[in-house]
Each structure stands twice: as structure tokens, then as C-alpha cells.
Amino acid sequence: MRRDISQKSEETAFRPFQQKALGNRIGFRFADGQMRSLPYLQLIETQYHPDIGVILEFAGHRVTLQGRNLQQLYCELEAEEIGEIIERHSRDFAVLPNACYVEKIQWEKI
Q1: Partners of 43 in the beta sheet?
Q2: Whole-number CA gyration radius for the chain
Q3: Is the pLDDT reported for residue 71 higher than 90?
Q4: Which one, of 50, 53, 10, 38, lies nearest residue 109 by Cα?
Q5: CA 86 to CA 83: how far, in whole Å?
Q6: Which of 57, 77, 71 is nearest to 15 (CA)?
Q7: 83-88-94-99 Cα dihedral, nearest 10 degrees
Q8: Which of 8, 25, 35, 108 is buried most, with the most CB atoms less than 10 Å from its CB?
């Protein structure tokens, strides 16, 4: 694996890097098994909207993360700490009330 990410529980919505290095990428793991990644160096703008989620504007791509309790994820993205974001489709009762939960990753070319 090219990225060194910590091995947190499978129940998390994201995984931070264990060791940061220049040229790190953000991996996106979709619920259907598809995986994509983009380099932090192409990240132009990040936005957090309580009603929408987290919007990541890359050179040529826009990635929108929808879910619950995404504030911590946003802060760690700002600090370039996130190595992987994981989309989940779980029933509401299966998710802890205060846990960060990414229900949908929307990928667009711009």
C-alpha cells in the first residue's frame, strides 16, 4: 500500500496517516468497493456546510461528503491528516449518535 494509514476500527468514517510525507493522497473508498484517490497538492479549497456536508475542491474534481457529525473530519482534512475516507451505508441504529459517519461520497469532474 502506497499510503501509510493507521489501522482504526472498521467502524470509522476516516483513517488518519501514521506518518505524514510530502505528496500524500486522500483515498476515497466507496460502499460498492470502488476506490479512488487524489493528491493533497491538488486540493484548492475545503468547505463545511452543516446542511450539505464537506466539499473538497481539487484541480479538476469536486468531492462532496455527506453524512453526520462531519466537523472533526473537516478539521482533520484542513490539517492534511486524513489518508482515507470511507463511505458507509448503515441503518441509523447501527451508528453511534456522536460518531462521524460518511453516508455518501459524490465525485464530480469540473
Answers
A1: 58
A2: 13
A3: yes
A4: 38
A5: 10
A6: 77
A7: 30
A8: 25
